[in-house]
Design brief:
By secondary structure, the chain is α/β, with parallel strands linked by helices. It is 48% helix and 14% strand. The protein is elongated.
Length: 199
C-alpha cells in the first residue's frame, strides 16, 4: 500500500492536534480504521477522502494525489442519524467482520453517493431517518447494486412487515450485538467472505 498517503494523513492529523480516536469520531469510523489508514494497510475510498479533506481542512486534491486505488475488501455501511447508535454499532460490525471496510453515515444522501462509487456488500439501515426513510434508502441502494444485502435496524418490531417488502435480507432490533450480526450474516441473500466466520 502507499506509504505516501499514510504519512500525509498522520502528519495532517497531528498538525490539527487530533488523536486517532478524535479523527475517527469526526469521520464516523472506528479508531482501528484510522490506524489502518495511517499504517498503510488500508486506503480510504474517494468519498472518505473528500470527508477527510473537510475534517482536516485541506485541499482534497492533495489527498487524492497521495492515495492509490482502493483495496478489494468488502464494503459494509451503517446508516443511522443518531451518532450514538453509529458509535456503538460500528465497532461491533468491525469485530464480526474484520476484513470488511466498515463505514458509518448519518445522512442517507451521503450513503447513496458512497454506494455509487463503491460496491456495497452489506448495508445496515435505520428505518426512521431524518431526510429519507430507510425503506426508500434500501430501494435506492438496490437500484444502484441489486446484490447489496440490506439489514434493517429499528427499535420497533411493528416495521417488520413493511421492511420485508423492499427486498431486504434481514431485520434486527436495536441495539446491535455481535451475536445478532452473526445470525444476520447467515441469512444474507448474497453471502461474502468477511474474515470472520464463513457466511
Amino acid at each position: 500500500m502507499s506509504r505516501l498517503f499514510s504519512d500525509t494523513l498522520r502528519k495532517l492529523r497531528t498538525e490539527k492536534a487530533l488523536s486517532q480516536q478524535a479523527l475517527a469520531d469526526k469521520m464516523y469510523v472506528t479508531r482501528s480504521t484510522v490506524v489502518r489508514w495511517e499504517t498503510g494497510s488500508r486506503l480510504p475510498d474517494a468519498v472518505m477522502i473528500f470527508r477527510l479533506s473537510e475534517v482536516l481542512g485541506v485541499d482534497v486534491n492533495m489527498l487524492l494525489s497521495a492515495a492509490a486505488q482502493s483495496d478489494e475488501y468488502p464494503n459494509v455501511i451503517m446508516v443511522d442519524d443518531r451518532k450514538l447508535i453509529l458509535n456503538g454499532g460500528l465497532p461491533v460490525l468491525e469485530e464480526v467482520m474484520p476484513h470488511a471496510t466498515v463505514m458509518g453515515f448519518t445522512n442517507a444522501s451521503e450513503a447513496i453517493e458512497y454506494a455509487k462509487v463503491n460496491r456495497v456488500a452489506l448495508a445496515f439501515l435505520d428505518i426512521e431517518l431524518r431526510n429519507m426513510s430507510g425503506l426508500d434508502l434500501c430501494r435506492t441502494l438496490l437500484e444502484i447494486n441489486p446484490r447489496t444485502n440490506v439489514v434493517y435496524l429499528t427499535a420497533y418490531s411493528e416495521y417488520a412487515l413493511d421492511a420485508w417488502s423492499t427486498g431486504a435480507s434481514g431485520f434486527m432490533l436495536k441495539p446491535i450485538t455481535p451475536q445478532g450480526v452473526r445470525e444476520q450474516l447467515k441469512k444474507l441473500r448474497y453471502p461474502f467472505w468477511t474474515g470472520g466466520e464463513a457466511t
